[in-house]
Amino acid sequence: MRHVRGHRRWVGVLIVTAAASGLLAACASATAAPPASTTAGGDLAPTEADRAWERTGLPEDQRHEIEPVRLVSVFEQPEAIAACLRAAGYPHVVAAHGKVEPGEIAEEHAASFALSTYVCEAQFPTDPLFDRPLSADQIRALFRYRSTEQRECLQALGHAIAIPPTEQEFVSGYPEHGGWNPLNNVSAYGFAAAVEACPPIPAEFDPR
Question: Is this prediction's pTM over 0.85?
Fold first, then answer.
């Protein structure tokens, strides 16, 4: 997981066995996994889910892509991952100081925990916008995009989107939580189509 402001990345020390492969096949939303994203230079750039998959220790041909639930900011992701893992049957997992704390995981459960972590990482990916800092003008431009064009696009798809905050509220809150995001009002059903039709960041922010 990516973090900012000096937050450490939680990687976890997990003992993984091939027995976990059966758990992945049980994921109802799984489809064939695509290759990692490609950078402008042609090199493969690992995603958060790629790194989580590596920690399972399973071969790549056993991997399936997991349907995202929603995009989260780097500020939200630790709690989103922790909540997902608690729902998956690990009640002692918490988010603390910008990282996920798994608590005690018995050795015999390490493989299934690693696999569950991959699923949760894939379900709650970080918004690509947070891979780079924004200027004050860009933050204001992001607000205008989210509160008008993107919100109207999502509404046209039939999603009920909350009334946005004021620009001042958005700008002042951005350093803390990444600002109001209309995609957070989109349910898991139809999320992928919503992201495709109504991109999470303005076109001018996209470096591709």
Answer: no
